[in-house]
Specification:
With 204 residues, the protein is α/β, with parallel strands linked by helices. It has a 5-stranded parallel sheet, with helices on both faces. The protein contains 8 helices and 5 strands, in the order E-H-E-H-H-E-H-H-E-H-H-E-H. The chain binds thymidine-5'-phosphate. Thymidine-5'-phosphate binds next to helix 4.
Length: 204
C-alpha cells in the first residue's frame, strides 16, 4: 500500500525516554506544514485502549499477549493510521510492530516466524517509513523507570528480560538500517533532538 502521508514510529525498552521526544517529533513536522497525528501502541483507538488495559495489567499466556497486540494493531490501522495517511497526514506512533519482535520474541521467547505470520496477515507489506530506536543499556532504563508511576506487567520484568528486548531491537535495526535509526538515548535531550531533527528533515 502506498500512502500520501508518512508513518514514523518510536521504539525502545521501557525507560529509554522515547515518549519525551514524541512531542518534539510532532512539532517539528507541524512546523513543516504537515497535519500530524500522534498515537501509541498498544492503543490508539477506543478498542485498542481497552486491549491495552488488559495487556498491561492482566496476566496471560505469551501467545495470547501476542495475538492481542496484533488485534489492537489491526484496529489501529483500519480506524486511525491508514485513513490518516490516505488523507496526507503524517502519523507518529509511540511503538508499532518492531515492539512485538523485541518484546514477544526477544523478551518472551516466541518464534519470530509467528510474529512474521501475523505481521503479514495484518499489515500486508505495510511498514513504517522511519523508526527511531532509542537505545540504552537495561540498567540505565531501569533507573529511569523506577522514578515513574506504579509499574505495569512489562515494567516489572527483570533486567535480563530488557537485555533480550534491547538485543532483539538492535538485531532488527542491523537488518534494516535505512528504516530503523539507532539513537544513543544516554545523550542529552538537546543532542538527541539535533539528531532527530536531521533524520526528520532528510525524510521528504
Ligand atoms: P509503552 O509503555 O511504551 O506505552 O508500551 C506499553 C508496553 O507494551 C511496553 O512495555 C511494551 C509493550 N509492547 C509489547 O510488548 N509488544 C508490542 O507489540 C507493543 C506495541 C508494546
Amino acid at each position: 500500500m502506498t500512502m500520501p502521508g508518512r508513518f514514523i514510529t518510536l521504539e525502545g525498552v521501557d525507560g529509554a525516554g522515547k515518549s519525551t521526544h514524541l512531542g518534539f517529533v510532532a512539532e517539528r513536522l507541524r512546523a513543516r506544514g504537515h497535519e500530524v497525528v500522534v498515537t501509541r501502541e498498544p492503543g490508539g483507538t477506543p478498542l485498542g485502549e481497552t486491549l491495552r488495559e488488559l495487556l498491561l495489567h492482566r496476566d496471560m499466556d505469551a501467545g495470547t499477549e501476542l495475538l492481542l497486540m496484533f488485534a489492537a494493531r489491526q484496529q489501529h490501522l483500519a480506524e486511525l493510521i491508514q485513513p490518516a495517511l490516505a488523507r496526507g497526514a503524517w502519523v507518529v506512533s509511540d511503538r508499532f510492530t518492531d515492539a512485538s519482535y523485541a518484546y514477544q520474541c526477544g523478551g518472551r521467547g516466541i518464534d519470530a516466524a509467528r510474529v512474521a505470520a501475523l505481521e503479514n496477515w495484518v499489515q500486508q507489506g505495510f511498514a513504517p517509513d522511519l523508526t527511531l530506536l532509542f537505545d540504552v543499556p537495561a540498567e540505565v532504563a531501569e533507573s529511569r523507570r523506577s522514578a515513574a508511576r506504579a509499574a505495569d506487567r512489562f515494567e516489572r520484568e527483570a533486567d535480563s528480560f530488557f537485555n533480550r528486548v534491547r538485543q532483539a531491537y538492535l538485531v532488527r535495526a542491523a537488518a534494516e538500517p535505512e528504516r530503523i535509526r539507532v539513537l544513543d538515548a544516554r545523550q542529552s535531550i538537546a543532542a538527541l533532538q539535533d539528531e532527530i531533527a536531521r533524520l526528520l528533515d532528510a525524510l521528504a
